[in-house]
Design brief:
Order of helices and strands: HHHHHHHHHH
Radius of gyration: 17 Å
Distance between the termini: 27 Å
Length: about 200
């Protein structure tokens, strides 16, 4: 990330938050491709968002990413989250909140998205409670230009209602899986970032 402002500025921290949400969304949606893996080879080991709490999980993720190729990462992603029928690990909020997919939590989420003027693209097969979609919403609520929608109030409400209640459970499920290597590291970073976000919102 190129910096035009001091690293301590509030604007820079918001840019860093949005970028980290975007990266997490990309990595949870699909295994990193060769281009993204190449970025890991040159990625700084300092955390991409302010706070030493994130530095160790970020450093570990970069290290694991540097030691794997795109094929191995694709196999890991498919083993954990893909395949035919029930995946080994679910990435959908409804599963953790109610025990069922496409359940009441998804309906509530869709209502809240509608109030924000947001919707899933029809070409995307996953439902809106996929963690990657939720992280993309957070990225927009931080970096979007419409301040009536993209503001701290909406960020806090959306995170508290649709991410915080189940994020740790998902990260635990990934971390415990014996086939998880890169995604165990990603789960650790995701959990740490979620804790930082929750603490930040609590201070508002």
């Amino acid at each position: 990330m190129s910096q035009t402002f001091p690293a301590t500025s509030a604007l820079d921290e918001e840019i860093a938050r949005a970028e980290l949400y975007g990266l997490l969304a990309r990595l949870w949606y699909a295994a990193p491709d060769a281009e993204l893996l190449e970025a890991f080879q040159v990625a700084p080991t300092e955390a991409p968002a302010a706070g030493a709490f994130l530095e160790e999980p970020w450093r570990h993720l970069v290290g694991v990413g540097r030691g794997m190729d795109a094929a191995a990462l694709g196999d890991e992603y498919d083993a954990l989250f893909g395949g035919i029928g029930k995946p080994e690990v679910f990435l959908f909020g409804s599963h953790y909140l109610s025990g069922f997919l496409n359940d009441k939590p998804l309906a509530k989420l869709r209502n809240d998205l509608d109030r924000l003027g947001l919707a899933r693209e029809e070409t995307v097969p996953e439902t809106e409670d996929h963690i990657a979609f939720l992280f993309e919403v957070m990225r927009y609520l931080i970096a979007g230009e419409d301040v009536e929608v993209a503001n701290l109030t909406h960020q806090r409400a959306f995170f508290s209602a649709h991410i915080q209640p189940w994020l740790a459970a998902m990260c635990d499920a990934v971390s415990r899986h014996p086939k998880a290597r890169f995604y165990a590291a990603l789960a650790a970073l995701t959990r740490a970032f979620g804790e930082v976000e929750a603490q930040g919102f609590d201070m508002l």
